[in-house]
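Reopening this one. Same input as before:
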Amino acid sequence: MLPRRMKGSEVLCILLSIFSIPLPINVVDSALVEFPNNTAVTGTTDRTEFKCESDEGIELEWFMQANDTVQRKPLSVGHDFKDEGAKTFSWIRNGAPGKFTLILSIRDESAQTYTCREPDTNQENSAELIKMEPTKFEKDVNESHVILACSVNFRGNWAPELELSHNGTSVVDGVDVFVVPNQNVSSTLVIPRHNSACAGHYSCTTRFHLRGKPDRTTDNSVPSYMDTSTLTVHVEEIQEMHPGITSDGNSPGSVITIIILSVVLVAVAGGGGGATRIIAYKK
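Same output, byte for byte:
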């Protein structure tokens, strides 16, 4: 029996299976080699920069998100701004292929979350800009307590923390803290006026901790910002007050002036006149 002659199509299939030629596949293997970091600055700073760069020279996208919003807004693609309002406090600088630096003026409205994204891979990184004001530290002395009040105003999605210390030792117990998002952080310490050990130097320091970072922010750097304000509570301010205390701090029995008016009729030899004598005692 003679072997069956193979058809041309069958021969072609066999050849393709033996000499398979892989088809070219376009693989995008780019990455963000520089990205923005969390930043806190004072209002006296003119501007700051958020740098972002792709190693493939790709045009990058920027997004922004305010504290009271759920969704982020497109800010720019390359040099092209997508939000007209953002032009009032930001602009883009292209220093090299794939490097798009977001420059931000320090204003209340610029304190937001910013995200840089590479459109080909959707790789992105987000960071916070926080605008800070100086830390305020004040004391109020009344009849029963010395009240220490520390506060700081800020704008942004990441609230700072206030740390109180007494003569270099951290104070935690008895400190009440109140936070208003995107506005203010305050802490209060009430000291009873009965213990001279509470006198001394107090400081209030404003700083950031990783535990306060918003969950949506991918950058894990902690802003290096720190601001400290100090005051002194004097011994005479911390002494316990007693009813009837004098204005100079003495106790009721320390200064007692007894004025005794005595009218002494003294028989004067040879006369019937009298004399008045005033005697004052000071203990």
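So the earlier flakiness isn't reproducible anymore. For the record, The CA atoms of residues 139 and 153 lie 18 Å apart.
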